[in-house]
Amino acid sequence: MNQSKAEAIVARLLTNAADVKYGAVSVTANIHCGRIVNIVYSTTESTRETEADGKAGTEGRDHET
Q: What is the pTM of this model?
């Protein structure tokens, strides 16, 4: 792989990471006969839904009821 191709992959990975607050980013390169034939970028964000009564999402916090 040439230097410019590697730099482009890293730049894309960093751009994807900048948009994620909680989660993961990755890149997978498929190689055939020593050459990259496919690149897949993946971004996964973790979210937590809260219940209507406001009790969810308070784990580990000090609070009075």
A: 0.62
